[in-house]
Amino acid sequence: MIHSPHTRSVSRLEEDAIDTPPSPALRFGVNYTPRRGWFHAWHDFDPGLAREDLAQIAGLGLDHVRVFHLWPLLQPNRALVRPSAVDQLVRLVELAAECGLDVLVDGVQGHLSSFDFYPEWTRSWHHRNVFTDPEAIEAQAVLLRTLGRALSGHPNLLGLQLGNELNNLVEHNPVSVAEVDHYLDTLLAAAREGLGEGGGLVTHSAYDAAWYGDDHPFTPEASARKGDLTTVHPWVFSADCARRYGPRSPQVHHLAEYGTELAAAYATDPARPVWVQETGAPEPHIPAADAPGFARATLRNAVGCARLWGVTWWCSHDVDRSLADFPELEYTLGLFDSTGRPKPIADALSTTVAELRATAAPPPPRTTALVLDCTPSTRSASGPGGTFFETWMRLRQEGARPAVVLAEHAQDTAHLAARGITELIKEG
After folding, report:
1. Contact yes or no for 334/315 (Cβ under 8 A)
2. How many whole angstroms separate alpha carbon 419 and alpha carbon 141?
3. What is the mean pLDDT of the segment spanning 224-252?
4. C-alpha distances out from residue 347 to 63, 247, 368, Å
5. Greatest C-alpha distance within the chain
6. pLDDT surpassing 70 at residue 19
7. Pairing outcome for strands 423-426 and 111-112
8. What is the mean pLDDT of residues 156-162?
9. Which InterPro entries does this UniProt record tie to the protein (predicted)?
C-alpha cells in the first residue's frame, strides 16, 4: 500500500522519545584522540600516557575504542612498513585490553580532523593517485595485510578498517565509481587475508558525501554492500544541518537515526548491521550548553533502529589549543578537555549508555517506509535541505517511525517482507 505523506495522519511524538529500548548486543564507544599531542603522539608514543587516556574512557562505562595510526609513520616508503610503528599499534590494543576495552583499528590515515597525511612516496614528483595507481594500491594492501597479521589473535580486537573517511582524499586523487569499487574490493580482501578467518570485522568508512553528494565517486551502494557492516558518520555540519534547522531541532536530534535508516535502504542484505561510527557535538554548530542534550537525544533515537550495531562518539579528548591551525570546531569535540577533566557531555553520554543497557530490548520493526527515488546526480535530495530528508523528518515529528526503501525495491515483496515493511509512503 502506497500513500502520500500529506494524507497520512499520525499522532505527534516527542522528538527525543525512545520508542523501545535497544538490543542487548549494542556497543557504545569512542574514537580515541590522544590527549597529549593529538595524533602527533605517535612520533614519541608513551604507553603510560595512552593507558591514562584509555582508563578515563573505560571509566565512562564505554566498551570499545576506534584507534588511528598515521600512514606516513607506518609506511614511509612504498616497500617499507616499519615494525616499530606496527608494534606501537599492537601495544595500544594491549593497553586497551588491560582497561577492558575492545578496539577497531583503522589502517590508512589518510585523513584526520581536517588534515591529510600522505607518505612522501605519494607526493611531489613521486605523485601517485592513491586510488588508481596499481603500485600505490598494492602498497596499501601490503600495509593492511601486515597490520592484520600483527593484530590477529588479540581477543579484544573488533577488526580492521581500511582507513578513516578515505573519500576525503578524492579532491587530490580523482577517481571513478568503478575505480573506487576496485580499490575497496582489493583492500578489503587484503585486510581479510591479514586477519585470517574469524579474525574480526573488515570494514571501510566514508564521510557524508558518499550518501548526500551528487555524483560523488564513493557511493551509498559501496558503503552499504562492501565489508562486513555499514559504517555511517552523520555529522551535524554536513550540508549545514545544524545551522539550517537549529542545534535543538528534531532534524539534528534524529540525524544519526536517519543516517542509519538511509544506510539500511541501500543494503542488499536486510539483516546487515549499521554502525554509527562517528557522531559528535562540534561547536558552534552545537553550543556547549546544548551538547549533553544532543548526546542523550542522539543515542536514544538511534537505538530505535533494528539494524544498529552501535554508536562510537567523536571523540575522547579535546585538541590542546597549544596546537595550531585546526578548524575551531576540532578543539572542543572531546568528552574530556585537554587536561583530562570530563566535560558535561561525558556525564550525559555515560549516564545515557547505562540507562539504555539497563533497559535493553530489541526495537520493533519499522513497518512504514518512505520511498527514496533518486539518481547519483540527485543524491542530495536525501541530505539535509533535500526534499526527501525533509519529508522523512516531518513524518518522524508527526509520530511515524519511517524506514527508507529504494524505489527499485518498492515492488519487491520479498525484500519488503524481510524488512518487516507493510506500508509504503511516496514522497510528494
Report:
1. yes
2. 35
3. 98
4. 15, 20, 35
5. 63
6. no
7. unpaired
8. 98
9. GH
Nearest to 236 by CA among 259, 252, 249, 248: 252
Show the domains of the chain with their CATH numbers: 20-363 (3.20.20.80)
This prediction's pTM: 0.95
pLDDT at res. 263? 98
pLDDT at 20 over 70: no
**Distance between CA atoms of residues 381 and 387, nearest Å:** 5
Nearest to 207 by CA among 263, 264, 268, 278: 278
d(CA 140, CA 130): 9
Q: How confident is the model at residue 163 (pLDDT cuts 50, 70, 90)?
A: very high
C-alpha closest to that of 49 among 32, 28, 25, 61: 32
pLDDT, tens digit, for every residue of 104-127?
999 999 999 999 999 999 998 999
Q: Which amino acid is at 231?
A: T
Residue 410's φ and ψ, nearest 5 degrees, are -65, -25
24, pLDDT greater than 80: no
Place of cell 608514543: 45
E strand or H helix that includes residue 220 = helix 220-225
Other CB atoms within 10 A of residue 186 CB? 17
Distance CA(285)–CA(293), nearest Å, equals 14
Residue 306's SS3 state is coil
Q: Which residues contact 246 (CB under 8 A, 6 or more apart)?
A: 252
